[in-house]
Amino acid sequence: MATPLRNPIVDIERARMTDTTDIGAPGTGWRRGPAQGPEVTAAADSATLVSAPFNRRPHPARSGMDLHIRQLGKRYSGVAALDRVDLDVAAGELVALLGPSGSGKTTLLRVIAGLLHPDEGRVLFGQDDATRLSLRERNVGFVFQHYALFKHMTVAENIAFGLRSRPRKRRPDKATIARRVEELLGLIQLPDFGGRYPEQLSGGQKQRVALARALAIDPTVLLLDEPFGALDAKVRVELRRWLRQLHERTGQTTLFVTHDQEEALELADRIVVLRDGRIEQVGTPDEIYSSPASDYVFDFIGRANVLEGRVEHGQFRIAGHAIALPAPDVADGPARLYARPHDIAPATPEAGIAALVIAAHRLADRITLELAVEGQSRPLELDFVASPGVTTPAPGSTIGLEPLRYRVFAA
Amino acid sequence: MSNRPRNDLQEPAWLRWMLIVLAVLVMAALVVMPLLMVLGAAFAKGIGVWFASLTEPDALSALKLTLFTVAIVVPVNAVFGMLTAWAVTRFEFRGKQLLLSLIDLPFAVSPVVAGLCLVLLFGSQGWFAELLREHDIKILFARPGIVLATLFITFPFVVRELIPLMQQQGADEELAARSLGAGSWTMFRRVTLPNIKWGLLYGVLLCAARAMGEFGAVSVVSGHIRGLTNTLPLHIEILYNEFDSTAAFAAASLLAGLALITLVLKFWLEARHGDALAKSHRRH
Fold it and tell me: Chain A residues contacting B, CB < 8 Å?
């Protein structure tokens, strides 16, 4: 069970979080190893998608609208896909719906879009109740996972579709539509692609065209279903940054679904973590990463080490090990300790939790250890900076572990 | 299968050749020969007689009735075929499997039985006999009966082509069109129809070919009234039964010619737009 948010800790480095030139998401930078950083950035630059580091500061909303979800419920043959979900999204916010498959994130997005009808609850765009509006009436920009571009139309025709389909009274004249299409082609950085057909585009280009097509109708909100799911890793990183920049420029209220925590941490202003049709936690990437509300969120976001033990009188103990770690606010009984790989320090075997080194990798100035602790089912990972005095422990040797920052949840 | 070593599939040369020759011979005997014989018999007494047999009033009337039937049946089945395929592929409802089986019924049932069903419904002893008599409507032994019988027999062609195609394509493009503000008609005209047009044409072609050639069901309901309710196939049968084989074969050559045109168009469609047809055709 989740313990209250005030659980001890944990002073996670805020500086690290706000350092936006860092290539990776906070929880994952260590995993990639530093050598990869410049490479990724270079690749992005070469595609001219990234021209400047982006910042995470809130931006004035220009075309966005606020969105409110009240007690939304949806069941599939008795199983709750959404279980009375409440959510408020401010105008101009970029929000990630994060969760494993079956958590209800796609259902939530589809209900907001009007692709699915909820069994209960309401969806409000601004002050207006949109629950009963059809997909067509909602004026949302929905980008499908596989883009759903009209394959017999050119890129320009695809983008113009929404404007051309308007009733005659509200339909802009041809020249205006053409100008708008040009503008959007510029925005997605495909200015000369208007005459091409979707089958002549790469996955990333299709994705951008789909976005432009959705933006053309000045949607109330922009909804993206697994926007990078169908792309390969390199394109994914480029496009992610590009989308962030685009969002900064348009100020469009945007929700996107993802199962990739790295994506959510890097891209979103706020993250909504879903589990079994309920919202587990809502917060900024910083909050989600540094103060996970539950063991589920801790485990799901970033890498986590788990140590099983017991809490007795506010102390976390592991059977067979001498260590006792303060865990106030946690009820006595079986408990689990969660700690990030970079929040555990190596020590002498006598000082900490004795652990056997299974494997050791060294990449530039970072050392990653794979460890086994007696009596624990899951292997542990440890990650630290190799300073001049530190040698990489040899596999087969025993070291001590000293959790610096951690959280204890009752099991 | 494709990753099996090629040698396993490599039969001895003599066996391969024998099988190929056998296949060609069977095709020739069963398909090409009869076709050539029809043409031979049709032109046996010269092109003048052939032309005369086709332009005599009864033949012309039969040709007209056949074309008239096709002109009604094909559009109707195209429209209802599209609607049915739409309903089946875009909505979930109870009894969908049953509907899918019913769509295949015309293929499963003998055409004669289909014709007899119409007699049962609209005949002088039929369920609707009273109603029809009151309003002085003639269905059996008249054009409506012929059209109805042909409609029934040829219904599956368009639907069965469109269902797998629309299933393959999914509804995403249509939903995208909707979310961009398109109304039903705009969506259909600009998204759905362009996506299914080649498949639709393919289905229409098969439907037209069958509508022209349908014999069994039409034979039951037509009444064989010369110059009135004879379609081309019925006309041919009558001529043949009266030992007027030249005229019979002349009319048959016309039907065969129409079939050949269909075949050529079908080939062209498969070669040129195969990727826009339902995948199942690669198996045909």
Answer: 113-115, 134-136, 138-142, 144, 146, 148-153, 161-162, 165-166, 213-214, 216-217
Q: How far is A323 from A348, CA to CA, in rounded Å?
A: 13
User: Which residue of chain B has the CA closest to A213?
Assistant: B180
Question: Which pLDDT belongs to residue B79?
Answer: 96
Measure CB to CB from residue A115 to each of B175, B177, B195 and give the nearest one. Answer: B175
Asked if B182 and A161 come within 8 Å (Cβ–Cβ), the reply is: yes
Interface touch B180/A162, C-beta < 8 Å: yes
The answer to whether A148 contacts B173, with C-beta atoms less than 8 Å apart, is yes
Q: Would you write out chain B's pLDDT as a tens digit for each of its 284 residues?
A: 445 455 566 778 899 899 999 999 999 899 889 888 888 989 988 899 999 999 999 999 999 999 999 999 999 999 999 999 999 999 989 999 999 999 999 999 999 999 999 998 888 888 888 888 888 888 889 999 999 999 999 999 999 999 999 999 999 999 999 999 999 999 999 999 999 999 999 999 999 999 999 999 999 998 888 888 899 999 999 999 999 888 999 999 998 888 888 889 888 888 888 777 876 554 44
- CA distances, B66 to each of A35, B74, B257 (Å): 77, 12, 14
Q: Rounded to whole angstroms, what are the CA distances from A245 to A169, A242, A252, B69?
A: 34, 5, 11, 62
Mutation target vs A (from B90, B180, B184; most A CBs, 10 A cutoff): B180
Contact B190 A150 (CB under 8 A): yes
Distance CA A105, CA A111 (A): 10
**Is the sign of the CA dihedral A348, A354, A358, A362 positive or negative?**
negative
Distances, alpha carbon A232 to alpha carbons A227, A335, B180, in Å: 12, 39, 28
B181–A136 C-beta distance less than 8 A: yes
B183 touching A (Cβ < 8 Å): yes
Tokens encoding B277: 């047809």
Return the amino acid letter for A155: V
Asked if ipTM goes beyond 0.90, one says: no
B194 touches chain A (CB under 8 A): yes
Does pLDDT of A305 surpass 70?
yes
| φ, ψ at A61 (rounded to 5°) | -80, 135
Q: Residues A258-268: what's their mean pLDDT?
A: 91
Contacts of B198 in chain A (CB under 8 A): none
For the four alpha carbons of A123, A125, A127 and A133, in that order, the dihedral sign comes to: negative
pLDDT score recorded for residue A53: 36
Residues A95, A263: Cα–Cα separation, whole Å: 11
Question: Helices (DSSP H) in A251-356: which residue ranges?
Answer: 261-267, 285-290, 295-300
CB contact under 8 A, B177 and A165: yes
Tell whether B186 is within 8 A of chain A (Cβ).
yes
Helix (H, G, I), strand (E, B) or coil at A254: strand
Closest chain B C-alpha to A146 CA, distance in angstroms? 9
Q: Using a CB-CB distance cutoff of 8 angstroms, which residues of chain B are in contact with residue A151?
A: 173, 195
